[in-house]
Amino acid sequence: MSAAAPPAVRSCRPFVKAPARRRCPAVRCSLAGDVVTAGRILKELKSGCATPLPVLRRVADAMADDMRAGLASDHSGSELKMILSYVDVLPTGNEKGLFYALDLGGTNFRVLRVQLGGKDNRVIDTEFEQVSIPRELMFGTSEELFDFIASGLARFVESESGIFHLPPERKREIGFTFSFPVNQTSIDSGILMKWTKGFAVSGTAGKDVVACLNEAMERQGLDMRVSALVNDTVGTLAGARYWDDDVMVAVILGTGTNACYIEQTDAIPKLQSLASGSGRTIINTEWGAFSDGLPLTEFDYDMDNESINPGEQIFEKTISGMYLGEIVRRVLLKMSKFSALFGNSVPEKLSTPFVLRTPDLCAMHQDDSRDLYEVGMRLGGIVGTTSSTLEARKVALEVIDTIVQRGGRLAGAGIVGILQKLEQDSRGLVFGKRTVVAMDGGLYENYPQYRNYLKGAVTELLGPELSKNVIIEHTKDGSGIGAALLAAVNSKYID
Question: Which parts pass through the membrane (predicted)?
């Protein structure tokens, strides 16, 4: 990979600016003192972020224990909510017909249609369109937002032609991917708990978001019904499972992170009264909230304390794309203040929260040139270092590698924790056969070192023989197709 043209980590966006920290007084040291001070900070960082095998095992075991506690009761105190998706029938490949998907998870929404042809033809064709949501609608009323979405969906339906066709006397059905906190009550209903990601829409909290969309479609004269409500992780699993029956787990690693998996209903004590006919369902772990046993440093604690949600989403803040660059920035800032890492003054931009993003880390991490030219250019352009020595660039690269290595290896331990739980509760029926983990998200897709550290941790934890059966596969943009497939699986027209 060329250092001059690094892959962009598309799912990484600047974070809401955190409150400015009190500036520490500059400490001027001799050159010898500078090297020792920067080296000491780096040594302490590596020690605090270390993920040897015993630490990985502790994290994997704690993840499995927390999963069981979350499945036992909503009041168990588990950090993992283990949310029931109400998806208890998965795509088989037999699905036929025209189905739509709507993906709302940020400042854009995406609409998609897919023509399914059953076992012989599978996906005959797909089309999609992405629409930007005007900023004023993010702060408007519920009716205004859903009317805008429904009108965009109606225009998309009007362009339906060619290979896409709806059988006579059938209503169009749609899978709705809604990536905001929802208390789901059935496969086609869910109550919005709160808006996130910069939305502050009035009149929606406490309401069924499917009802809001259905009502808006009716106002637009659009003859369509929502037959499945899912989050993006669940959609990813369903989409991957359609092509591969061995998919058991889906993980998203991008700006944020989450994981879901297929669970046997008899292993869910809190849901025994809602046992499904198939005997299994998808569980949304919401694993970003996990924190037990994680190796954390002063930089992690400071970032968390100054975040908009202190004490929450600690796993996400350690492994996901939104935060890796910010942790690195905080380390470099301390080094710059207490040594002459970048000269005798602290670069002004280096004090700006979230100025250093994960795509910048990725670009610098690919630099294998003798003089680390790309590292120097990025540091100069992003954090405003007027000059950097080769030694300073090497230190910056070591800081990046330390934080990215910890993130990737902890993500791998989390995956093994899920697999361990399944293996133990199914009496050895997981590791003895091919088991696929479907991965999506820009961080996993575009950051090769992160990806390699993740896979390395899985192999290290499981050992060379068992790890051969665990296949980690990239599933690009699978949640849209997955939502359409779940609409098909839950169609009211199924014979």
Answer: none
